[in-house]
Every structure is written in C-alpha cells, then in structure tokens.
Amino acid sequence: MAEASAANTQLLVRDLTVRFPTTRGTVQAVNGVTFDLARGASLGIVGESGSGKSVTAKTLMNLLPRTAEVAGDVIFEGEDVRRLASEGREHFWGVKMTMVFQDPMTSLNPVKKCGEQIAETLRYHLKRDRKTALAEAEDLLAQVGIPEPGKRVDQYPHELSGGLRQRVVIAMALACEPSLLIADEPTTAVDVTVQKHLLDLLDKLREDRGMSMILITHDLGVARGRCDEIAVMYAGRLVERSAPETLFSDSRHPYTDALLRSIPRIDQPSHTRLEPIPGRPPELINPPEQCAYAPRCRFARSDCLESIPDISGVAGMHEFACFHPANTDRGREALAANLAQGCTVAGLEISGAGASS
Amino acid sequence: MAGSGHAPLREDLEVLLTVRDLEVEFPVGKGAVVHAVSGISFDVAAGETLGIVGESGCGKSTVAKSIIRLNDIKSGAVDYQGNNLARLEGEELRQLRPDLQMIFQDPISSLNPRRKIRQVISEGLAVWGDEKGSWSQSRIEELMLSVGIDPKFGDRRPHQFSGGQCQRIGIARALALDPKVLICDEPVSALDVSVQAQVLNLLEDMKKRYGLTLLFISHDLSVVKNVSDRIIVMYLGKACEIGNANELYENPRHPYTRALLAAVPEPAPTVDVSEGDISGELPSPINPPVGCRFNTRCSHATDVCFTDEPEMQRVGDSDHYIACHHPVAVSINA
C-alpha cells in the first residue's frame, strides 16, 4: 500500500528484526521486515517453514518468548505497540488485534465448553456479566456459520469436527470486534472443502466488519485468491511484495519465480515434469553476508555473494530484493552468463533445460 | 457412491494387483464399528501409477495398509500374481512382503532415530539378503546415490538430515528389496513446497529406473494429478469415481469430485466445476448414510439416492467410471 495514503494506513511495520539466542549461536529469524497494511485490506505472507512468517506474526501479537531480541517499529493506528503502557497493553492484544492459529485443537482449552471459552474473552476485556457473555458467545457462533449454536455452546472442543473447531476459534478472535485479524495457517490442518468454507467465512467477516487481515500461509494458491497483496518471505527476509496477479504473472525475485514453477498445477496434464528448486533453505544461525537465496539461485552472480540486496522496485506497487531480477534484462543477462559457464558463482550447476526467464 | 460393482476392473491389460470388494472395519467399543472401507474394487496395471484421493477419513490410507496387511481385512480379496494377499498367512505371506513396500507421510518419525541411516536402509537386506544371499555395502551406496544422498553420510542418524532428505532415505529403504509395488502414503505432505518437487521427481525417476508400479495416496489434488495415470476418488469408504487422470480432471462427473475440484484454492480454467458446491460435514463412518453415502451433502440427491446404492458404471467409451444416480452432465462449451 502506498505511503501517500498514510491516513488510511492501519499497520506500519518498519525494519522488524527478531533474534533468538541459542547455545549454537543466534538465530536470525526475522531480518529488517518492512510493510504497511491499509485499513480493511488483506495481506498474504507466504513462505516455507523457517522463513520467519510466523515469527513476524507472533511479534506483532507480542507472543514471543522473553529470550527473543526484537528491534524495529510496529505502529498500529498511530500507536507504537511495542512501547504501550501497561494499562494500554492489557486490552490491546485480543481486542484490537487478534490471532487465529493453525491447530484449533491446541488453541482451545479441552476441558472448557466452547461457549464459556468465548465468553471468557468478553468478560475479561469488555467486562460483560456471565449471562450476557454467554448469550453473545452463542450469537458469535451463529455469525461464524456454526449450525445449532445453542447446542454448541455447551459442547467441548473434542465433540466438534476440525472445521467447526476452527470456526469456534474464529468466533473467539472476533468477540471483541478487532480491527486487525492475523490468521496463521488457519486452514492447514483441514481438508480442501472445509478450507474453502473457512476462507469464504473469513472473506465475508472481513467485508462485513471492515476488518483488515494478515493471512499467513505456505500455499501460494490460497494467498492468491484471498489477498489484495502478497509478501513472499525467504530466510527471515521479505523478498518480494506485490498484488497477486503481478506476482504470479511477472515475478521478479528468482525464489518466487522458481517456487511458482516447482508447484504441480492442476491445469497441467499428468506427468508434467516439475522444476524443483535445488538445495534447501539456509541455516539462520550466523548466515553469511550475502543474498540468502544465492546458493540455490540460477541467476546468482558475484555481487549476490558480496552483499545483501535491498528492497527496490516501485514502492507500494511491486517491490523485490534482488540484483538480477527474473523477467528483466538484468536477470536474463545474468542467466545467460551462468548458462554459458554451466554453473553459477555459488557453484550450482545449471543447464539450459527447465526454467528460463 | 458405490464401490460395489466390478465395472472399473480391466481385463485386457497386464494387471499386477487387483482389489475386489475390500471391506475393512475397526471396532470402537460397545459393539460399534467404523466402516473404514466398504467394498471397494480396483486394479493396478504393471508400471502404472494409481492415485487415491479424498478427504481425511475417506479410507484411502486404510486401503493402502490393507494391501500390505498392516490392518485386518474383514472381507474381500487382494490378488497379486495369483496369490490372494488377504488370505495368505505365515511364511507364504512373508515371502511376498519384499515385493510390496511402503513409504510414509512423516519422513522423520518413520526412521528409527537411534540407527545410522546405513542400518536403516540395509535392514531389509539384512533379513532377506540380496540375490547373492548376502548384501554388500556397495549395494547400500548404490541405493543412496540413486536417491541423491551422498554415501559418505551413511553413518549419520536421521536427526542430522532435513525432512526432504529423510524422505529420500525412506525411499531408498523401500527400494532396497527390489519391490514391484511401491505404496506412497502422502509422501510429500509434510515437506516444504520447494522440496516437494524434488521428491516427486525422484519418485518418477525411481519408477522408471526400477520398473515400479506406484500406489500414490494424497489429499492434494494437484499433486495426485501430476503423478498419476489413473485416479480413484474416495468418499467415506467407497469409491465414487475412477478414471484416467487427465480425463477425470477435465470432465468430472460425480458431484463429489466436482466439489473437491471446486475447493482447490486456484481452480483451473480448464476444469469444469459447475454444480460442485457442497455443504455440511462428513457423516460419521460409524453410522454411514443408507443408499448413496454422499446423499447428505449432495445437491443432486433425490429419493433413489436415499434407498439404493449406485453401482459403478462406465461413462462413455473412455476409461472413466462413476457411481452416481445423477451424474453431472458434461458442459457443452466447445
């Protein structure tokens, strides 16, 4: 989202950095992540495990362990949430900004009835009395499309199916009418048909309430259909950000480009040969001062091993962090030079077969 | 939604494995049983990849495990090279075990964490020996090389490898005994997207190199289409549609298949998913619906669907079979 519409900006994240000290060294989980979110918009954060997407979300929600070293700014509706005074903190998370987690079974209390768990939020934050809170809980269950809400308030989580449980979690997150909902892999534990219903529900709730959403997922397809903008993360950095259509048709970062080529697509005939990404994601302990993707990248040149590329491109439209972006002349030159040598500067053997730009 | 009916069984082909009327039930106490698989019939031709797709709880893993007798079979037959695997016992069954190997969903928990990977891969050979009656380190090294693991890491233990590498080790272990059939139960579901393609390509390469026949189970419709020649769509213990992979995805005729394809986050423009909306929840497999098992969620259901179970029947003249009283018409958009 463009900086110009600052008044409309709900969330500003600047240079967010998260480090975890461990006995083996410091894990650089998130490195200088910067993005904005407009009021009512939805941002998809896509990446593999270890890319830092969940840590980013947990930082926003103040859910990191005490050992985490966090730097950078998180400005929500003009307020720096990392420096909130204690009375402000108490009713911020869970009220204005809420989160839905991947596994509904572990985010619900197994020994408490569903209705009571939702009512608890209302009683604590909004000081409702027990009866009103339970009635509101039932109403919330109806809003998230749970059939027979009157019966469900008195049931325990294990009595519900996975899809219904996730709806209960969503109802709980919505209880205090948040203006930002962070959904961390909300549909990874459920089947495709249930996934569709849950995503439809989130879309509808977002529209009805004018709520903004950050959807964290490893599934590019999910993000494409549900978000106004997609941010791709790799090794703790944001490597590309744009509207879904641009990202899919004209990706710039070689990682995004390679990822899109490596995923089996449903419209390809069976036995279409996939183009896998060689190697695997890097270690985040003491990473070298170089582009983290360089060892796996077909486009890598010597400059990629010398420094870390900054985010460039058109701010708010299409940003990427790469010296030799795919689908550009610079990228094509780099690839042609690497193909001529048969390998990249990082020693990755490449051939003319497969991906091109 | 019937597995009953043998229409999809082929006679003209070199069939390696035939499953007939397979029924599997699990007791859950108080006399109740889960009807996990209720009369499914299909066959797998030599060298073919058969995909099984469906939601969790549809019985796809149970079918796979039944074939190699990892769970009890209530009734039905599994014909493999003239033997009925469902009835064999003791030494006769043991003799056939090397022919059918399996790889599992979670690559790390399927390897013994206390063993070196060389031992993990060689365990089958230690039991069976290779053709010379004993096995050699060079055989292990050859296997490791073929799945892309450097043999010098043979003395490492599973926790020292990534998920993708562990899955490669699992594949090497399965291949050690020269199997004819490799059963893959969600082999890439636990892997990151960038590593998925590596393992899928490896499976394809191994299939060609060792002349394998694959049974590939997944809930991911795109992955199943990519690897399979033929696909079975399962729902609540029954098969609802069987057909050639491309044909099935181009012209899905069963309302449930359409619903599955319509739920893919990025429905492909080439796939007709109209009339494929479903609502409601999966019914309990303890007390499945009478008639067509899909009747509680199907928008096409009429009286007959609540009384009679549809039989598998052929659609047109292609390799495409469906069990439905009201197949969805193919749209005319040519």
Account of the protein in words:
- The complex is a heterodimer of chains A (357) and B (334).
- With 357 residues, chain A is an alpha/beta fold.
- Chain A has 13 helices and twelve strands.
- In chain A, the strands form two sheets. An eight-stranded mixed sheet of chain A has the order 6-7-8-3-9-10-12-11, sandwiched between helices. Chain A has a four-stranded antiparallel sheet with strand order 2-1-4-5, covered by helices on one side.
- Chain B is of the alpha/beta class and 334 residues long.
- Chain B has ten helices and twelve strands.
- In chain B, strands 6-7-8-3-9-10-12-11 form an eight-stranded mixed sheet, sandwiched between helices. In chain B, strands 2-1-4-5 form a four-stranded antiparallel sheet, with helices on one face.
- The radius of gyration of chain B is 21 Å and the shape is globular.
- The two termini of chain B are 29 Å apart.
- The model of chain B has no long low-confidence stretch (mean pLDDT 89).
- Classes of the chains: A alpha/beta (357), B alpha/beta (334).
- At the A-B interface, α8, α9 and α11 of A face α6, α7, α8 and α9 of B.
Q: What is the secondary structure topology, with strand pairs?
A:
The complex is a heterodimer of chains A (357) and B (334).
Chain A: E1 9-22, E2 25-38, E3 42-46, H1 53-60, E4 69-76, E5 79-80, H2 86-90, E6 97-100, H3 104-107, H4 114-126, H5 130-143, H6 149-152, H7 162-174, E7 180-184, H8 192-209, E8 212-217, H9 220-226, E9 229-234, E10 237-242, H10 244-249, H11 254-262, H12 302-306, E11 312-314, E12 318-320, H13 329-341
Parallel strand pairs in A: 3-8, 3-9, 6-7, 7-8
Antiparallel strand pairs in A: 1-2, 1-4, 4-5, 9-10, 10-12, 11-12
Chain B: E1 15-27, E2 33-45, E3 49-53, H1 60-67, E4 75-80, E5 83-84, H2 90-96, E6 100-103, H3 117-128, H4 137-146, H5 163-175, E7 181-185, H6 193-210, E8 213-218, H7 221-227, E9 230-235, E10 238-244, H8 245-250, H9 255-263, H10 303-307, E11 313-314, E12 320-322
Parallel strand pairs in B: 3-8, 3-9, 6-7, 7-8
Antiparallel strand pairs in B: 1-2, 1-4, 4-5, 9-10, 10-12, 11-12
